[in-house]
Amino acid sequence: MRKFVEGSWTNDTVELRLPLKLEYSPILRATTGAVAGVISFNYDEIMQLRVAVSEVFEQAMKYVTPGRGVSEVNELAVRFLGYLDRIEILIAGPKDYTSHLNTQDGKESLALLRTLTDEVKFDAKVAGKSLVRMVKYKSLMEGT
């Protein structure tokens, strides 16, 4: 993830595609922790990111069409963009995922994501899928 080029770190991209099945949630959490660790996030920030991606995964699972197996609509595509001062996580999931934001469950989910990350945005139906964009900035204080 880190490349030193003329006095600054360059951004790298890590991508992951996962079936929307409960047994794949730990893989997403572990990958999130590993990527954030490489960027030198502290322990608390890594845990916040892991909980945030778990929340998105759990909410997206509610929109899986039973019996379709692993298909384009029943998977989560995750892109991690690592920068010197932040991580950006883009998660594309089922197209109807963002429609739940007006429900009580959706409002609670959004409140949790806003607490855990510095920026969160939902875009409905980008390329036939819903997109969640989360940004977390590294703490300015060393060792916190």
Label this structure with key terms:
single chain; 144 residues; alpha+beta; Heat Shock Protein 90; five-stranded antiparallel sheet; two-stranded antiparallel ribbon; 7 strands; globular; disordered N terminus
Please write out the topology.
Blueprint: E1 4-5, E2 8-9, E3 12-19, H1 25-38, H2 43-61, E4 75-82, E5 86-93, H3 104-116, E6 119-126, E7 129-137
Antiparallel strand pairs: 1-2, 3-4, 4-5, 5-7, 6-7
Helix pairs in contact: 1-2, 2-3
Largest sheet: 5 strands, antiparallel
Count of individual domains: 1
- CATH class categorisation: Alpha Beta
CATH homologous superfamily descriptor: Histidine kinase-like ATPase, C-terminal domain
* Spatial ordering of strands, largest sheet: 3-4-5-7-6
pLDDT averaged over residues: 83
Oligomer: single chain
* CA distance, first residue to last residue: 22 Å
The number of helical runs is 3
How much strand? Answer: 25-35%
In angstroms, what is the radius of gyration? 15 Å
Query: Which regions are unreliable across 5 or more consecutive residues at pLDDT < 50?
Result: 1-8
CATH architectural label: 2-Layer Sandwich
DSSP strand tally: 7
> Any idea of the CATH topology?
Heat Shock Protein 90
Describe the 3D structure.
Helix content is 32%, strand content 31%. It is of the alpha+beta class and 144 residues long. It has one domain: Histidine kinase-like ATPase, C-terminal domain (Heat Shock Protein 90). The chain has a five-stranded antiparallel beta sheet, covered by helices on one side. A two-stranded antiparallel ribbon has the order 1-2. A hairpin with a 2-residue loop joins strand 6 and strand 7. Helix 1 packs antiparallel against helix 2 (43-61) and helix 2 runs antiparallel to helix 3. The longest helix is centred in the middle third of the chain and has 19 residues, at 43-61. The two termini are 22 Å apart.
